Every structure is written in structure tokens, then in C-alpha cells.
Amino acid sequence: MTGVNDDVPGGRELLRVEGVTKSFPGVRALDGVDLTLRTGEVHVLLGENGAGKSTLIKMLSGAHRPDDGRILVAGGPDGAHDGPREVHIRSAQDAERLGIATIYQEFNLVPGLTVAENIFLGRQPRTALGLIDKKAMRARAAELLRRVRLDVSPNTPVAELGIARLQMVEIAKALSLGARVLIMDEPTAVLTSEEVETLFGIVRELRDTGVGIIFITHHLDEIGALGDRVTVLRDGRSVQEVPASTDEDELIRLMVGRDIAEQYPRQRPDEPGAPLLRVRGLTRNGTKAGPVFEGIDFEVRAGEVVGLAGLVGAGRTEVVRAIFGVDRYDAGTVEIDGTRLARGDVRAAMRAGLGLVPEDRKGQGLVLDASLQDNLTLARLDRDTRGGLVDRGAQRREAAAVAGQLKVRMSGLAQPARTLSGGNQQKIVIGKWLLADTKLLILDEPTRGIDVGAKVEIYQLINELTASGRAVLMISSDLPEVLGMSDRVLVMSQGRLAGELSAEEATQDAVMELALQSPNGAAEGPKNKNESAMEGSDVH
Amino acid sequence: MSTEVKTGAAAEAVGQAPDRDGLGPWFSRAVLKNGPLGGLIALVVVMAVLSKDFLNGQNLLNVGVQASVTAILAFGVTFVIVSAGIDLSVGSVAALSATVVAWAATAEGLPVWIAVLLGLAVGVAAGLVSGALVAYGRLPAFIATLAMLSIGRGLALVISGGSPIAFPGSVSSLGDTLGGWLPVPVLVMIAMGLIAALILARTYAGRAMFAIGGNEEAARLSGINVRRRKLVIYALSGLFAAVAGIVLAARLTSAQPQAASGYELDAIAAVVIGGASLSGGSGKASGTLIGALILAVLRNGLNLLSVSAFWQQVATGLVIALAVLLDTLRRRSAR
Question: Disordered: where is this region (chain A) (predicted)?
């Protein structure tokens, strides 16, 4: 066992992965991966989707077992001096005993139970009579919630919490297990920038108490802000371990194995074309808390990319769903090419040339167990039907053409959509709308959870679409993406359009200022900023 | 702490992805590889070995006749299950449709072709009501079709006054044989099976069923009118039930209001044995046919072997569980 190496940050070695390989039928997911994690370090795991990050963390959490190679973990809290010993992690329970906790993107919380009950699920403190000691459970939960700076009562049902707070509950749960290794799989993917800051604060505190953290992210700017070391995975191999201060271009080069000229390759049109979409006074009444959105006015011109920014819960998704006819609205009009669209009629919206790539790719965008061909041709099923019969041959040709155009990495069109990586799945959802001859494509969080390489491909596709006279309306919580790709940025705050910024005016600060505006127009003080960010996510 | 979870490499190997080649005899491998068809073939082989009378032409045609009503019902239920619904009403709707045909032709003296159209229309109407309750009333399919199960049976009893009504002669020939050997119910079963296969694989209605069953929200966001599609799906199920009811009555030469009671469960079993998933998005007409044949071969074979009707029920239950278990294993190993 090697001792402490002084030229790297962090303390003693907590966890070591040596030459681990893992194959699934037809794929070699991991091919000799090495990784070391020290106490008090944030170790970033970086790689494109399909590079093997998920397989590696599933191995550490007991969901998969390595075909070859070793995993070593240091002994218990006192035994850390012994150095790591080889272990076999066969189940989630094994991982738990070893002090390894994993926070996945999909949370493992029971919505109907309270925060305290979730934290201690299956391990509730008992009274002398063997009954659950609710008082002790609440007290211990309250203490854990303080540690993660989460200001909710332990008795709050989890169903009432937004994504950011759910994540804090997951962290509290990991702490209650006495985790010494905390694995976080893209924890920032669904958070607003304010929430990300809070999360970073908590992660830093945990690090300072000696917890080793494996942090997966696709946001390169987060690496320098939070990380100590970075291990880059590519095609199932650990390419290199570098300090977190490595510059972004170098990280991208290591990750994709080639240079990416520009991260946001937007080619802006010289001048936008005629208005394609015109939204006037769009309003949807909500509950007593206020309207879901109110008085939304904007237009999108041919050839344009319009970004729709704002905090999660500001009403962006609700607005685009109303425009697309998925949800109803109470007042206002939606016009395409000067023709008014019927309310609540998806088919009318599609005929008029709208397409929606929803934020929840798996839940709303894809029929996961259906073939790629069926997914790609779903939105033009009626057009491929002649005399009552579906022309399967035409479907196959169309699907093959668009899959080729989008460079979908697949084994064939009969492959189920479930088995593709996130980036390729998103290409399928977009391809579906290309085949439906969409004039205005609405993208809701188009690159969430997608690796850098696939992101750039999607950006290039956006360029192609707008160059051919079509238009894109893009919701994104990834501010650099909004700024990098939009020709104009609309900012929503609490159900209203807080303002519009041209590409030149749009900076992170300008967008955030509008996003945090209260309905009466004035920006709130810094203390309230935090609150509105949290509340925003709760509404969602 | 760490020693608790530390064991030898041998135990590790056991936990690896199961190696199907090492699973054992040819028999179970064939079943695993070919799914329901392998199961049917295996069952036929077993029955042929156990009973000399099983594998002759006449008996096999009997099996076909015995499978026909279940199979036709099950084709209709396949549409519903593929779209992630369930239809418990098909047995009752079959009896109601047959009763309406007999009542219209025999009691009211209407021309036979009008009586048959009326019977089919009643099946479609019952399906439309179930479909409307599911699509527009947002009732769970289980509840809506459970209600229709009761309503359909009740109406059959009301119309018939509780007693069988003679079936018109020309329709009863549906229960006869062609050329003295080929049973018409088997032909109807094959025809309905081909129609079901065509609908599922090649029509807008069929492809929409798979999309809705696979992910209803994604289907809706892709422009499929989910509610209208559900009306069509349950109406088709009602139509197939009506055909099954008429075939059954033709074989019995009378419409009996209590006929086909409990057949909905056989139909669902046939669909599931045939490899469809109750959670929707998968299913084939050929699989459903095989499922119905498995149930019929089992009953026929056990009859030939003089196994008591009571034990036959036990055996049927075991086969249903085994078939779905094997199918689950097969899918898992294919993943």
C-alpha cells in the first residue's frame, strides 16, 4: 500500500480502483480504469456520456461487479491508518457498510414520507419497546438538516420539496449513514446557479470534515470552482489524472480526444427573417398563490435562436407547453405565420409547424422500449399512413436518413431507444421533429445531462436549422449555453417576462438580475435572492 | 468491517451474468430461446408422448376449435394490453352480442345479416362505452371494464329473460365444418388473427397502440390523439368479443346469456403467455394465438389423460405462471 503522497491535495487514501474492467454483451464499458480518492478531496470524474462514469460508480455502489481489477477501501473511521484493503462490493448494503454513499440523478426518496422518515428509512431509531422513536428520529434529522443548511422541518413530506431540497435530503441521508466516500452523479444538472452555490458550500464543508467526494459533472466551470483533482475517462479507459486547475480547453481535449474549436459555435444570421411565432398576452390562472404565467408577449423570427432564461419554476416550461397545445391557457393568443392557433390542440400546433423537445427526455420525449425507427417516425405517423396502412418502408428510409444526418451512434434502427446514451437519445427526439417538418422547434433543456461532444453536435444542428430558415426557442438553465447560443434572450421571473436582452446585452449578471426580479419590477436584496431561488424550484 | 464483504473469487463468479449455454438440457434452452412457440412445441411433444390419441388430425382440429373462442377474444384484448390497458368485459360482451343476434333473428324475425350487424354493433358500442369511461371519464381501465363486465352480462340476461335463445340456422353453420373436416371456427380464428396482426403491425391505429402503451405522454406530445385512440382500441376489443360470442353461440346453436363467463381471464392469460407485457408497449397477434393454443392443448391433453377438471385448473394456473416466468427470464438474458 502506498503512503500519503504530498504533492496532491487531500489526506490519506480512502479508496483505490485498480485496472477495473467490465463488459456487457457487445460493449466493453470499462477497460482498465484507475482512480484514487483521498480524505478531504473533491475528485471530479469527467467524461462524455458512454465513457464509463456510470458503470464505474455503479461498481462502487454495488450495482455492478468488475470482471477484472481490484477495488480497495480503507478500513473504518479509526482504521484509516491501515491503508486500503481489497473489497468485493456485491450489494448496496455492502457499499453502505464500507461507508460509500451514492447520490444518483434520480433520487431514492419516498414522496409520501416525511424528510425524517426518508433519512432514516429502514434504520429508524427504536424505543425500548421496539417502536419507532419519533422524537429521537426528528431530533437527529434536524441536526443533519442543519449540517446541510436545509431550512425545512423534519416533518415536511418529501413530496412538497423541490429538486434542490430533495438533493439536500439525499445528502443528509448519506451523512446519517456515516458515509466517508460520497459519490454525486451530476448533482448540479438540475439546479439553478444560486442553488449550485449552496450545494458547493455544503460539499466544501463535507470535504473539510474529511469526507472524500467523487463528483460527476458536465459543467467544466464547476471543476475549477470545487474540485481538487480530475480523472478523465474516455471510451472506458482512465485517460489521465490532472489537477482541477487545468484549463477547460485541455480538459475538453482529454475528454473527447480531439480539439473542439469552439464550445458554442453559434453562427448568427445577418438579419432575422419574418416573424414565425407571435405570442400575445398569454396568461394561465393558477391557484390562490397567483397565475402560473401572465401577460407573456414575444415573437420569434425565422432564422433566430431565442433563449428563454429564468430560474427553475419561473414558468418557462409551462409557457412553452401552453404554446404547443399540451396545456390550456386562459387568455392571450398564439399565432404562427399570422394564423391563430387553437388552444390545447397539439395536432394543430404540429400542423402549423411547431415541435417540442420536452425537458424530460425519457419520461416525455421517447417511447423507451420502442425501436429507434418507431420513435423517429412517431410525429409523422399520420403522414406515413396511406389508405389506413402505415408505409413501413418509407418509415425505414426516413428514419435511416435522419439518423445518418444526426450521426446517431446506434447498432441499427431496430435498437430500443432505452439502450442509447443520453446524447444519442436527445438526437432521436430532435430527429423526430426534423422528420415532422418543424418550422419552429422548441427545445426545453436540450443538453441537460449530455456530454460536451454531443452538446456541440446539437448546437451545430441548431445552426443548420436556423440557416435553413427555421427557428428555435430554447429554454435552458445552463447560462453559458443560453448566452452562447441565443440571438436574443428572454428572461422570465415568477410567471412574467422580466425583460429581453440582445446577444450583446446578455451577460450572466444581466440575465440573473432580471431572473431575480420580483413582480413589481425591483430586484430584491441578496438575502431574498436565495429564498426566491429555492421557492422557485419548489413550485416546479 | 471490510472483511465482512470479502470472499473468494469463486463466489464472485456465481454472481456474473448467467451463462445461458450452461443452463442445461436442450429442452429448456429451446424454450428460453424461442419463448412462447418453444413452450407450445414442448407441450405438444409431452402430450404426444403421454397420449397416443393426442397427435392425430381430428384431435388437433378439436384443439383448434377449443382454442378459437379464447383466441378471438384474446386478439381483441391484445390491442388493449399493448396500449397498457386491460379489458375484463370481453366475456360478457361476447354473451351480450350473441344474445342480441339470436333475439333479433329468432324473436324479432329480422333478416339474419341485419341481426349479425346488430350484434357486432352492440360489441362496438360496449367497447366505446368502456373506452369513453377510460379516456374521458379518466376511470382506471380495470374499473371501467369491470363495470362493463357486469353491465354486459346483465343486459344479456335482461334481453334473453335468462334462458337460451335458439341461434338462426344460417349463422349456426359458423360452428360447422367445411367439406366435412375443416371446422369453421378455426378459419374464423385464423382470419381474425390475420386482421389483428395487420392492425398491430401495419395500421395507424396499431402503431399508436404501441406508442401509447410504451409512453402515453410521449405519444401525446408527438401529436397522437390519445383519448380518441383509446376509444378505437376498446371498440376494437368489443368488436372482436362480438365475433367470438357469435362463433361460440354458433357452436352451441343457441345464444346463452351465461355463456363465456370467465373467458376474459383466459383471454388475458393467452395474451400474457404470448409474451405481451401488462405494462404495455409490447405484444403480437402470433404470440396471443400461441398463448390460446397452449391453453387449449393443455386442456385437451389433460382430458385425454383423464385428469380431473379440478386438477386441470391447477395445471392451467401453473402453466400461466411458468410461461410468464420463462418469458421474463428470456428477456432478462437478452438484455
Answer: 516-540
pLDDT digits (tens, 9 = 90+) for B210-259: 999 999 999 999 999 999 999 999 999 999 999 999 999 999 999 999 99
pLDDT per residue, tens digit, chain A (540 aa), is 444 444 444 578 899 999 999 887 656 788 889 999 999 999 999 887 667 888 899 999 988 889 999 999 987 554 445 677 888 888 888 898 889 999 887 788 888 899 999 999 888 888 888 888 889 999 999 999 988 888 889 999 988 888 788 888 988 988 888 889 999 988 887 777 788 888 899 899 889 988 999 999 878 888 988 999 999 998 788 888 999 999 888 888 888 776 545 678 888 877 878 999 999 999 999 876 778 999 999 999 999 999 999 887 789 999 999 999 999 899 999 999 999 999 999 999 999 999 999 998 999 999 999 999 999 999 999 999 998 899 999 999 999 999 999 988 888 999 999 888 888 999 999 999 999 999 999 999 998 877 777 888 899 999 999 999 999 999 998 888 898 899 999 999 989 999 999 988 988 888 888 988 765 544 443 333 333 333 333 333
CA A116 to each of CA A128, A148, A424, A466, B274: distance values in angstroms, whole numbers, following the listed order:
20, 14, 39, 50, 45
State how many domains chain B has. 1
CB contact under 8 A, A385 and B204: yes
Q: For residue B260, give the CATH number of its domain.
A: 1.10.3470
Q: Tally helices (H) and strands (E) across chain B.
A: 15, 4
Q: Smallest CA–CA separation between B329 and chain A, in Å?
A: 16
Q: Which of B82, B200, B203, B221 to mutate to test the interface with A (most CBs of A within 10 A)?
A: B221
B311 belongs to a structural domain: yes
Residue A67: closest C-alpha in chain B? B16
Second CATH level (architecture) for the domain A1-99+179-256: 3-Layer(aba) Sandwich (3.40)
Alpha-carbon distance of B119 to B98, in angstroms, equals: 6
Q: How far apart are CA B247 and CA A438, in angstroms?
A: 49
Q: From CA B228, how far away is CA B131, in angstroms rounded?
A: 9
Whole-angstrom distance, CA of residue A5 vs CA of residue A2: 8
CB-CB contact of A297 with A280 (8 Å)? yes
Q: pLDDT tens-digit profile of B115-125?
A: 999 999 999 99
Instruction: Mutation target for B interface from A65, A85, A369, A385: give the one with most B CBs within 10 A.
Output: A369
**To 5 degrees, how large is the angle CA B16–CA B22–CA B26?**
145
- 3-class secondary-structure state, position B70: helix
Distances (CA, A) of B235 to B121, B188, B240, B242: 10, 19, 9, 10
Parallel, antiparallel, or unpaired for β A100-103 and A13-24? unpaired
The answer to whether A1-99+179-256 and A275-539 have equal CATH topology is yes
Which of B17, B219, B223 has the CB atom closest to A350's CB atom? B223
Amino acid at the residue A131? L
- Grid coordinates standing for B220? 401525446
Whether B88 is covered by a domain: the verdict is yes
A473 DSSP β-pair partners = A306, A442
Nearest Cα of chain A lies from the Cα of B12 at a distance, in angstroms, of 8
Sheet strand arrangement including A229-234 = A100-103, A181-185, A212-216, A42-46, A229-234, A237-243
The residues, ordered by sequence, that sit 6+ positions from B293 with a Cβ below 8 Å of its Cβ are B40, B63, B67, B71
Q: Where are the domains of chain A?
A: 1-99+179-256, 107-177, 275-539
State the cell numbers at A7. Answer: 504533492
For chain B, give the percent of residues with pLDDT over 70. Answer: 89
- Å between B7 CA and nearest CA of chain A: 7
Distance CA A144, CA A150 (A): 9
